[in-house]
Amino acid sequence: MRILALVPLCLVASCSGGGEEKKAEEAAAATIDGGQWETSFEVTKFGSTDQSPPAMKAAVGDKAINAICVPEAERSTPPPELFAGEGYECDYKNNYIRNGRINASINCTREGVTGDIMMTVDGSYKADSLEGTVTTTTYLPGAGDFQMDRKLTGRKTAAACAPAEEPANKTG
Which of 31, 71, 73, 154 is at a distance of 20 to 30 A from 49, taking alpha carbons? Predict the structure, then answer.
Protein backbone atom coordinates (compact mmCIF):
# COMPACT_ATOMS: atom_id res chain seq x y z
CA MET A 1 0.00 0.00 0.00
CA ARG A 2 2.75 2.40 0.87
CA ILE A 3 4.46 1.80 -2.44
CA LEU A 4 1.29 2.52 -4.39
CA ALA A 5 0.77 5.79 -2.52
CA LEU A 6 4.31 6.94 -3.36
CA VAL A 7 4.06 6.17 -7.09
CA PRO A 8 1.53 8.96 -7.85
CA LEU A 9 3.63 11.43 -5.83
CA CYS A 10 6.74 10.50 -7.80
CA LEU A 11 4.89 10.91 -11.09
CA VAL A 12 3.64 14.36 -10.11
CA ALA A 13 7.09 15.42 -8.95
CA SER A 14 8.77 14.23 -12.12
CA CYS A 15 6.21 15.93 -14.33
CA SER A 16 6.44 19.30 -12.65
CA GLY A 17 10.05 19.38 -11.53
CA GLY A 18 11.87 17.25 -14.10
CA GLY A 19 11.75 19.61 -17.08
CA GLU A 20 12.20 23.32 -16.66
CA GLU A 21 9.97 25.47 -18.82
CA LYS A 22 11.54 28.68 -20.03
CA LYS A 23 9.15 31.56 -20.38
CA ALA A 24 10.26 33.63 -23.34
CA GLU A 25 9.13 37.12 -22.52
CA GLU A 26 9.49 39.48 -25.39
CA ALA A 27 12.32 41.82 -24.54
CA ALA A 28 11.46 45.50 -24.63
CA ALA A 29 12.58 47.05 -27.88
CA ALA A 30 15.00 49.95 -27.52
CA THR A 31 12.87 52.03 -29.92
CA ILE A 32 9.51 51.75 -31.68
CA ASP A 33 9.81 49.66 -34.84
CA GLY A 34 9.70 51.49 -38.13
CA GLY A 35 6.96 50.64 -40.58
CA GLN A 36 3.21 50.99 -40.97
CA TRP A 37 1.20 51.18 -37.73
CA GLU A 38 -2.49 51.21 -36.89
CA THR A 39 -3.54 52.90 -33.66
CA SER A 40 -6.97 52.68 -32.06
CA PHE A 41 -8.41 55.14 -29.59
CA GLU A 42 -11.42 54.74 -27.30
CA VAL A 43 -12.77 57.67 -25.28
CA THR A 44 -13.00 56.64 -21.61
CA LYS A 45 -13.72 60.09 -20.12
CA PHE A 46 -14.91 63.36 -21.65
CA GLY A 47 -16.20 66.57 -20.15
CA SER A 48 -16.11 70.34 -20.03
CA THR A 49 -13.60 71.98 -17.71
CA ASP A 50 -15.10 75.48 -17.92
CA GLN A 51 -18.84 74.67 -17.66
CA SER A 52 -19.43 75.57 -21.32
CA PRO A 53 -20.11 73.26 -24.27
CA PRO A 54 -16.79 71.59 -25.26
CA ALA A 55 -15.11 72.93 -28.41
CA MET A 56 -14.89 69.40 -29.76
CA LYS A 57 -17.59 66.75 -29.91
CA ALA A 58 -16.86 63.39 -28.29
CA ALA A 59 -18.54 60.91 -25.99
CA VAL A 60 -17.43 58.07 -23.76
CA GLY A 61 -17.21 54.96 -25.92
CA ASP A 62 -16.35 56.78 -29.16
CA LYS A 63 -13.71 54.90 -31.15
CA ALA A 64 -11.29 55.95 -33.87
CA ILE A 65 -8.61 54.18 -35.87
CA ASN A 66 -5.55 55.84 -37.36
CA ALA A 67 -2.98 54.52 -39.84
CA ILE A 68 0.44 56.12 -39.65
CA CYS A 69 3.95 55.53 -40.92
CA VAL A 70 6.92 55.45 -38.55
CA PRO A 71 9.93 56.12 -40.78
CA GLU A 72 13.08 54.13 -39.94
CA ALA A 73 14.94 57.40 -39.32
CA GLU A 74 12.32 58.45 -36.71
CA ARG A 75 12.13 55.24 -34.65
CA SER A 76 13.53 56.86 -31.49
CA THR A 77 11.09 59.78 -31.81
CA PRO A 78 8.13 58.57 -33.88
CA PRO A 79 5.66 61.10 -35.30
CA PRO A 80 3.60 62.39 -32.32
CA GLU A 81 0.42 61.77 -34.33
CA LEU A 82 1.04 58.05 -33.62
CA PHE A 83 -0.14 58.82 -30.08
CA ALA A 84 -2.54 61.70 -30.82
CA GLY A 85 -4.67 60.28 -33.62
CA GLU A 86 -5.96 61.46 -36.95
CA GLY A 87 -6.81 65.12 -37.43
CA TYR A 88 -4.17 66.48 -35.07
CA GLU A 89 -0.94 68.27 -35.95
CA CYS A 90 1.47 67.91 -33.05
CA ASP A 91 4.95 68.62 -31.70
CA TYR A 92 6.64 67.03 -28.71
CA LYS A 93 7.12 69.20 -25.63
CA ASN A 94 9.14 66.35 -24.10
CA ASN A 95 9.26 62.61 -24.49
CA TYR A 96 10.77 59.40 -23.24
CA ILE A 97 10.18 56.60 -25.72
CA ARG A 98 12.77 53.94 -24.93
CA ASN A 99 13.15 50.41 -23.67
CA GLY A 100 9.47 49.58 -23.93
CA ARG A 101 8.23 52.73 -22.14
CA ILE A 102 6.24 55.67 -23.53
CA ASN A 103 5.98 58.89 -21.56
CA ALA A 104 5.36 61.98 -23.66
CA SER A 105 3.84 65.45 -23.58
CA ILE A 106 2.68 66.77 -26.92
CA ASN A 107 1.17 70.06 -28.01
CA CYS A 108 -1.39 69.76 -30.79
CA THR A 109 -3.71 71.81 -32.94
CA ARG A 110 -6.84 70.65 -34.73
CA GLU A 111 -8.90 72.22 -37.47
CA GLY A 112 -11.99 73.85 -36.00
CA VAL A 113 -10.46 74.30 -32.52
CA THR A 114 -8.63 77.54 -31.72
CA GLY A 115 -6.04 77.18 -28.99
CA ASP A 116 -3.65 74.64 -27.52
CA ILE A 117 -4.56 70.99 -27.16
CA MET A 118 -2.14 69.38 -24.74
CA MET A 119 -1.79 65.61 -24.52
CA THR A 120 0.13 63.40 -22.15
CA VAL A 121 0.80 59.81 -23.13
CA ASP A 122 1.68 57.09 -20.65
CA GLY A 123 2.15 53.59 -21.97
CA SER A 124 4.35 50.76 -23.12
CA TYR A 125 5.36 49.06 -26.34
CA LYS A 126 6.80 45.84 -27.69
CA ALA A 127 8.19 45.01 -31.11
CA ASP A 128 4.79 44.94 -32.82
CA SER A 129 2.32 46.52 -30.40
CA LEU A 130 1.74 49.42 -28.03
CA GLU A 131 -0.80 50.41 -25.41
CA GLY A 132 -1.40 53.29 -23.08
CA THR A 133 -3.54 56.18 -21.96
CA VAL A 134 -3.78 59.58 -23.65
CA THR A 135 -5.02 62.44 -21.47
CA THR A 136 -6.05 65.55 -23.39
CA THR A 137 -6.54 68.98 -21.82
CA THR A 138 -7.31 72.16 -23.75
CA TYR A 139 -6.26 75.75 -23.15
CA LEU A 140 -8.52 77.76 -25.44
CA PRO A 141 -8.72 81.55 -25.67
CA GLY A 142 -12.49 81.47 -25.10
CA ALA A 143 -15.06 79.02 -23.83
CA GLY A 144 -15.05 75.34 -24.72
CA ASP A 145 -12.19 73.87 -22.69
CA PHE A 146 -12.44 70.14 -22.12
CA GLN A 147 -10.59 67.13 -20.79
CA MET A 148 -10.62 63.77 -22.55
CA ASP A 149 -9.03 60.45 -21.64
CA ARG A 150 -8.57 57.80 -24.32
CA LYS A 151 -7.35 54.23 -24.22
CA LEU A 152 -4.66 53.76 -26.87
CA THR A 153 -3.77 50.46 -28.51
CA GLY A 154 -1.64 49.97 -31.57
CA ARG A 155 -0.16 47.31 -33.75
CA LYS A 156 2.43 47.24 -36.46
CA THR A 157 0.70 46.23 -39.69
CA ALA A 158 3.62 46.17 -42.15
CA ALA A 159 7.41 46.32 -42.12
CA ALA A 160 7.41 49.08 -44.71
CA CYS A 161 5.25 52.18 -44.85
CA ALA A 162 2.37 52.29 -47.29
CA PRO A 163 3.27 54.34 -50.38
CA ALA A 164 2.07 57.93 -50.24
CA GLU A 165 -0.83 58.72 -52.49
CA GLU A 166 0.33 60.63 -55.52
CA PRO A 167 -1.53 63.80 -56.44
CA ALA A 168 -3.53 63.75 -59.67
CA ASN A 169 -1.61 64.96 -62.72
CA LYS A 170 -2.27 68.56 -63.56
CA THR A 171 -2.16 69.82 -67.12
CA GLY A 172 -1.53 73.27 -67.98
Answer: 154
